[in-house]
Amino acid sequence: MAAGIDVLVPDPILNTNPAIDAARKRVPASYLKYHVTAMVCRPPADLVAMTAGA
Predict the structure, then answer these.
(1) Do 8 and 14 touch, CB atoms closer than 8 A?
(2) Cα–Cα distance for residue pair 7/34, rounded to 1 Å
(3) Rounded CA separation 53/41 (Å)
(4) What pLDDT is stored for residue 53 in this prediction?
(5) CA-CA distance, 32 to 11, in Å (whole number)?
(6) Torsion of CA 40, 45, 48, 50, to 10 degrees
(7) What is the CA radius of gyration of the chain?
(8) Cβ atoms 24, 18 nearer than 8 A
(9) What pLDDT, in 10s, does the model give residues 12-28?
(10) Torsion of CA 43, 45, 48, 52, to 10 degrees
(11) Alpha-carbon gap, residue 35 to 41, rounded angstroms
(12) Which residue has better confidence, 42 or 31?
């Protein structure tokens, strides 16, 4: 996963967006890695709803 984040952070195409570029300079890559991992590993909402009533 770290290799993916290391490629994503300095991406010149993404960083042409001023908001993304500003965030990249303000937020450490480890924070981005944590949130990307959380989004990828989170179970789908419908699965959570099905198991909540069990």
Answers:
(1) yes
(2) 15
(3) 21
(4) 58
(5) 14
(6) -140
(7) 15
(8) no
(9) 898 899 998 898 889 88
(10) 160
(11) 10
(12) 31
pTM: 0.52
Other CB atoms within a 10 A radius of the CB of residue 5 amount to: 15
In this structure, are residues 5 and 32 in contact, taking their beta carbons and an 8 Å threshold?
Answer: yes
Count CA atoms within 13 Å of residue 54 on its CB side. Answer: 5
Tokens at 47, concatenated: 């699965």
- Look up residue 6 and give its amino acid: D
Q: b/e for 9-43, b at 16 or more Cβ within 10 A?
A: beeeeeeeeeeeeeebeeeeeeeebeeeeeeeeee
Assigned token pair, 43: 């179970």
